[in-house]
Amino acid sequence: MTERVAMVTGGARGIGREICLALARDGRRVAVADLRAEAAEETAALIREAGGSAIGVAMDITDSDGVQQGIFQVIDELAPIEILVNCAGWDEFIPFLDTDEDFWDKVIDINYKGALRTTHACLPGMIEGGWGRVVNIGSDAGRVGSSLEAVYSGAKGGIIAFTKTIAREMARNGITANTVCPGPTDTPLLGEITAGSEDSDKVVGAMARAVPMKRLGQPHEVASAVAYFASEDAGFITGQTLSVSGGLTMS
Is residue 228 annotated as part of the catalytic site, yes or no? Predict the structure, then answer.
């Protein structure tokens, strides 16, 4: 692998952290972009301690100016971004009729518009360089729907369609765009979402039972799929949606 620069949003913990570590193992120089600046630096430090190259970048993907400033930092400290992984996300389990427009706006701003902002900012540099990889983290909720996640499911469905369109528009520029859709995965975010339930253990257990493999996914299992899509070998694969969900979604 060449020392291309990768930026991972939501890279401070969970799936995002494992993606950063996987890309670093492939020789990428990694910008760990996250709202949690200290945790982002912790992930970057893990990479550096293992002999890799990484920086932490404070970034709020709901702020267009902040996204641009973060990207300028990456360019200044590493090099132009050639691999973009949009992993930052957020949700809560709430019946749709119990939600309001403030909740809708927050879910859409983070899970959909955040990826629009970073992709819009990074693509010109990839076009200029004649090479690029965009990997967006979707969700099986965006493929088949998910009870208590109506707005999140819609946002992730939008990510899938958006990624396919970018794949078409960028195909002649040496840039690919693909989506990785995790199923239920053992992450800090899942713990935070289920913590609000009176029976969080039962909720998580029900998720695991719904998976044919009868367990939750692990962040590193999602990361391996992302690393492949970001690789040199995946140059003829674009516009694809891959579920990493233990068979929960098959298509």
Answer: no
